[in-house]
Structure formats: structure tokens, C-alpha cells
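**User:** Everyone, produce a chain:

**Assistant:**
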Amino acid sequence: MRLATITLNNEEAAVIVGSEGAVSIAELNKVYDKNWETSIFELIQSGQLDELTSWYNKEGKNAIASQEIDFVEEELLVYGPLYKHPRKIWGIGLNYVDHASDLGEKAPNTEPASFMKPDTSIIGAGDTIRIPLQSDRTTAEAELGVIIGKICRNVEEKDVENYVAGYTTIIDMTAEDILQKNPRYLTRSKSFDTFFSFGPQFVTKDEIDNLHNLEVSTVINGEVYRKNTVDHMTFSPEYLVSFHSKVMTLLPGDIISTGTPGAVHIQNGDTVECRIEGFEPLINPCADLKVLQEA
């Protein structure tokens, strides 16, 4: 099942996305006399996601495809962030060896190089990434995002799938010139507004045949800059969830952004994408606040 948050009648609405368009959860509640939460974050928090997924796979998919209920046509979908206030966003640095070599750094091989980001950095598909006044070299990084589905504490790697709700596309930004001044500036370099694009679709784990075969691509102005498959990560998504669950309790809706195959320098007027096989691409335009200030 694929979920998204769209703007519908000037309000945000959680929808299930099918091949012909999308159906709002509110419409499903009305037609089928259900009481599912009508935001993605609350669906995950409430524990209703498994029930909704089961219903969709058994009957909902056919109902949507046959247009038995009102739906929003695909070309009319206006995506927003999947949700705006997760309790935690974990990012993982240099998780592909090839990316570390791009930066002339040694990839961590004993423990993940992780950091946290604020929810004020979140934007959605189509929103503008703003290159800050303080940075002359900002990069964008396509990443696979893991969304936690259940309270997760001290979980072993082999059991992680039971705690994952699904996956999404992410573009993470870094003010690279700030970071290179001093590695202790990592949090600041990662935390500017618009530095975490999230969505447009959330794909439940039952839709993924082989997570480790997924190919993740950083794309700039329509051209693939760098791509790699999940099985080339130093630390697998399952390991990352297990590792961080032993640091702090992971909560439903928490996000782990698993690292990028390549970070591309972005400039005013660029368009950057995260492409993952089988996922709706995440696309964002870029604007440099220094250029806008001069105009």
C-alpha cells in the first residue's frame, strides 16, 4: 500500500494512492463505516496501519481500481510532506563507501556515523530547498528512509522487520562548507530550514520484495549524479534500526534516513531528485537565498 499526504479542498488529507489516483482515508471511513485515523502520523501512532494495509490488500485495492468510491485523479495530486512532526529524525553519514571517497574521508566501519535533525527542516515534494545565506557550498543527498511502526527498544537485527512500518524517499541537505570548517559543526550544517525533504509517498513494507536490491539515485537537473544499491551500505537498514534502538527508544513515526550514494552540489535554479526503484520520485527545486537577496 502507498500512502501520501495531499492538499484537498485547501486542507491536508491522508490518501491511499493507486494506479488511477488516490482515495482519502476520510472517504474510506464514510463509505465503509470505518474509523481510521485521517493523517499518516496518527495512523502509525494508533497502530491502525496493519489493519488498513490488510483491508487494502484484501478488498480496498480493487474498490479503488474500479472507481467504486470518489477518488482524486493522479494528475491532480498535490503532495505535501508525509507528516511534519516526527519525534525523531536520525540521519546516517557516509554509509556508502563510495560516498566517503567522494569527500576524501574514511567510511566508518565500526559504528554508524549518525546525527539528528529538527522537524523544522522538513519540506515536501515540490517545495523549494533554500540554500542559506551562511553557505556557499550546499549539497543534496538522495536517501532511503525507514519509518518506525512500533515502540522499538533493544531490538535485535533479525527482529527489526516487525518494528518497521515502511519506507520512503528522502533528500537530505548539508551546508558542506560549514561542516568542513570543523566536524563539530555537523548539527548546524544539517539543520537549516528546508534541509529535509520527505515523501511524496510512504510505501508499506509488504510492497517491498527485496529491500537490499533497491537502487537509490541522486539526480540533478534530470541527470543521474550517483546511484548505488542498498546492499552496498556499510550498515544495513536493519542494523541501523537495531543499533539506534539500543541508544534510545524509537517511537512510531520516527525516521531513519539511511545515507546517500552521492551528495551533489546544488545551486540556484537547480532541480534535485531522489529516485528509488518502485517509488514515486521525490523532486525539489533549489533557490539560493543569497541570489534572491541580491535581486
